[in-house]
User: Fold this.
Amino acid sequence: MSYASEVLEKVIRRDPAQPEFHQAAQEVLESLEPILDRYPKYRRNSILERLVEPERIITFRVPWSDDRGDVQVNRGYRIQFNSAIGPYKGGLRFHPTVNLSILKFLAFEQIFKNSLTTLPMGGGKGGSDFDPKGKSDGEVMRFCQSFMTELCKYIGPDTDVPAGDIGVGGREIGYLFGQYKRIRNEFTGVLTGKGIGWGGSKIRPEATGYGAVYFAQNMLEGRGDSLDGKICTISGSGNVAQYTAEKLLELGAKVISFSDSNGTIYDPDGIDTEKLEYVMELKNIHRGRIKEYAEKYGAEYREGERPWSIKCDCAFPSATQNEISAADAQQLCDQGCYLVAEGANMPTEPEGAHIFLSQKVLFGPGKAANAGGVAVSGLEMSQNSQRLSWSREEVDQYLKKIMKAIYTSAAGAAEEFGQPGNLILGANIAGFRKIADAMLAQGLV
Ligand code: NDP
Assistant:
């Protein structure tokens, strides 16, 4: 049995009820086999055993009172997974499905993603099973204040710097930051995704979506192609989906779908900038459902469906994990889709990813393609440390440069280890090498 398989078996035995974490660990560990075989130092020093074990997991009670005055209790988490190359960094997710397995998978992925960005950031993730949907602003604020009252004991600008994720946007970051500042009496860069007027970076809200599109551009350039005129499907209609659409439109592509957890809209005429503005207002201000788009513009609404049965050139899964099954992947390929850039984290099930690779689809795995968000978070940290604010153009230039560097290092590692074009393998190996070597240099950490 290979070293990677042995470690994976131990992971599954130790925490049998964590399927999402097993899935993420399996995907990464299996693809590391070529580098583990070439360099026995990693096995000799039990690097994998250390890598799959979080440095620290914090769980806590989050009591808050709703608008009726009733007390509600949620569970809060922060996984501080790996600090080999910098302070823990990774988002907070507020969603009813949040549990330890999902957060460990996200934090584990984050280690490699952050390493790929070229910036000094360790890996972490956190959140709560709180559902902001249907809650008033007052309820969300009281929840965030209670959450931060406990979390603030474990984070700090040089220790652990959370950001947003599903269910945590500008509104939530504001409430969280306000409470941190009140308790600690410090105005520091302890969270990223802050508002522009109070320490936020320009382009941070846009960064994950823009970055995913820049990554797609890099993949296409490798084939002498561009996004101009391409028909694109997008899943989700939140932060990542919206800014993926915005950048695609700017580059001349045609966007024909959005979705949410209830269903998909299909607009064969294309979602233009005016329609996109409507989606942004619908989702970010009125917190409505994507179905309302279909009602307004006479587009098709597919209740309970995802966009993968719609014919497209390029697909941008931007909602959540495991939203592309093997059957979806096959259908995408059969209908001529030749590029998939993952804006979401682990949206493609492993069998689906194998199908994309075997059918030579240009496949940008999440930890590479969606790293733009955390990259600009890293730039927000730099600006906060300098007490300076960079221009939109400056940040965008950095973002483009970083996405290119990620593509180049993932493509280079795939080539070096004998599987050109396999960016899953390339991203994992390139991310791993830096972390593992830092851990070796730092002794038994
Ligand atoms: P948002 O909360 O802004 O939007 C999430 C979108 O996905 C919504 O449209 C939501 O629909 C949909 N969605 C969420 N859960 C499910 C589900 N179980 N089934 C179907 N649809 C679902 O989150 P983001 O846009 O920030 O995040 C989207 C993805 O991108 C996540 O995987 C996240 O981890 C990843 N990501 C985000 C980054 C960021 O900077 N924000 C950075 C890197 C990755 P509904 O409104 O119905 O819930």
Notes: The first strand starts at residue 56 and ends at 65. The domain at 207-364 is CATH 3.40.50.720 (Rossmann fold). Residues 59 and 77 are 4 Å apart (CA to CA). Residues 164-167, 169, 208, 236-241, 260-262, 318-320, 343-345, 370, 373 surround NDP (CB under 6 Å).
